[in-house]
Specification:
It is built from 12 helices and 19 strands. It is of the alpha/beta class. Helix 1 packs across helix 4.
């Protein structure tokens, strides 16, 4: 078999890198998920966008690592664009995912239309996978098989066909990938399982076959607009709970949203479903499938104009992710003034440094020895807990003196806790409540009772995690 040159296009490769550095100014940026245990990534197409590192910290080549892109001509390998994306990720410490080794689409046409025998096809497949592993030894993960259910593969018999399991060709693909990428996570990737339980059950069957053989490290769910636009947070959580039963990490691999092609629609849909993905314990990272308007695979999915103007969904996403607990916890953010505020409080007090520009305070009434007995002294904050668990509570508050540094707190109709000696602060700070609350998933009401007049409350944060909130926190659920 002819030796394949992996160095083709070396000059072009250098040109791509120089162009990328010129756009980036050779500097790194603080992405929205910087410092979080999960990543928010995106795709790189023919070249690295100049603002990529401003937003994203994981890289998936959109087309450059698909077999049809690399070896359009048999025995001539073109890794130029793939290497540009890989080098960019390596130099910044971003996770790089190889996408994809085996797929029923975007493979070289010569594989099936030049009369190759199954044995010859198998040799070509094995060499393709081996060369890919050599080129990208530090790949964090690999989409080994893409769309095994949804996209028919005409050359699966070269990999063993259906065989005794019904999916022998998938198993063989993962065995070859494990040998070629010994240090990478091996993933499978599919669309349409998010809101189709029949497709999901079929997908789970394949995954369990791989899991039983120790061949798979994670599950990819594409989550394109044509599935997730019709979903809500509850249905996303239910779907992820189903996948969690497999005991494998889940990766949202190709997320995008259209939502009637309006800014408001896209924003509302991201605000609904993105936290459900991000906060689920099984999900370890989210990759969006393009972000620059006019350069995404489907119109309406873009998040920023080519001149750099962010659509509202992107602006919101930045604030949500950076202000979140990192995606490893179940979290709820609540604005105090948006609750049911009793008549003994002043609500909607203006302050440009407060979250949403407003806060609540009891100006004169006090209840020092016991909690207020009527709702006039309460701020009631209804919310939906995304999952059962033990929740910590944080307040963003101002308490200027020792005579105005306390509240009463309770969950639902439970016992009141006096929260005193919160510490003095003339600016907004986050403090953790002395009580935790073991609650079920679903509807609850957190209640704040006045105690000392002058104690100012801006925002409430409930989380199953241990992280300390910062800034103005995340997007409120109320």
């Amino acid at each position: 078999m002819d030796h394949r040159s992996a160095a083709r296009g070396g000059a072009l490769h250098c040109a791509y890198l120089l162009a990328a550095f010129a756009l980036l100014g050779g500097t790194a940026h603080a992405q929205m998920a910087n410092g979080k245990p999960k990543y928010v990534g995106n795709v790189i197409g023919t070249s690295v966008p100049g603002n990529f590192a401003t937003y994203w910290n994981q890289v998936t080549p959109e087309n450059a690592t698909k077999w049809g892109s690399v070896e359009g001509t048999r025995n001539v390998m073109n890794w130029t664009q793939a290497r540009a994306a890989y080098d960019f990720a390596q130099q910044r410490g971003f996770k790089f995912k190889f996408h994809t080794l085996v797929w029923g689409a975007q493979f070289p046409s010569w594989l099936t239309n030049t009369g190759l025998t199954q044995a010859q096809q198998r040799a070509e497949i094995e060499q393709w996978i081996s060369l890919a592993g050599q080129q990208f030894p530090n790949a964090w993960a690999v989409d080994v098989v893409n769309e095994p259910i949804k996209t028919a593969i005409s050359w699966k018999n070269a990999l063993g066909g259906n065989g005794s399991t019904g999916w022998d060709w998938v198993i063989t693909s993962f065995q070859l990938a494990r040998a070629a990428f010994p240090n990478a996570k091996l993933l499978i990737n599919e669309y349409g399982t998010e809101n189709d339980s029949n497709a999901r059950n079929q997908y789970k069957t394949i995954i369990n076959l791989l899991k039983a053989r120790g061949l798979i490290d994670g599950i990819g769910i594409q989550s394109h607009y044509f599935n997730v636009d019709s979903m809500n947070a509850a249905s996303v959580t239910a779907m992820l709970d189903d996948y969690a039963t497999l005991g494998l990490d889940v990766y949202v691999s190709e997320l995008d949203v259209v939502a009637n092609s309006t800014d408001a629609g896209q924003l509302a849909k991201y605000q609904d479903i993105f936290p459900a993905f991000w906060n689920h314990n099984s999900v370890k990272g989210i990759t969006l499938w393009g972000y620059i308007v006019g350069q995404t695979w489907r119109d309406g999915t873009g998040l920023i104009s080519q001149s750099g103007v962010e659509r509202p969904a992107l602006t919101w996403m930045k604030g949500f992710v950076s202000g979140s607990g990192g995606g490893g916890s179940n979290t709820v953010w609540l604005e105090s003034e948006r609750g049911t505020v009793g008549s003994n409080w002043n609500d909607n007090v203006a302050d440009s440094t407060a979250s949403s520009g407003q806060y609540v305070v009891s100006p004169s009434v006090q209840s020092l020895t016991s909690a207020p007995t009527t709702s006039a002294g309460w701020v009631q904050l209804p919310f939906t807990a995304p999952a059962a668990g033990t929740y910590n509570v944080w307040f963003r508050k101002k308490t200027p003196t020792a005579d105005d540094d306390s509240f009463w707190i309770r969950m639902d109709s439970g016992a009141w806790t006096m929260w005193n000696n919160m510490g003095n602060s003339s600016s907004w700070v986050w403090v953790k409540a002395p009580s935790t609350y073991n609650i079920t998933a679903g509807s609850h009401t957190f209640v704040v009772g006045l105690r000392e007049n002058g104690a100012q409350l801006d925002k409430v944060y409930l989380t199953t995690g241990t992280e300390t909130p910062t800034g103005t926190g995340g997007t409120p659920a109320n």
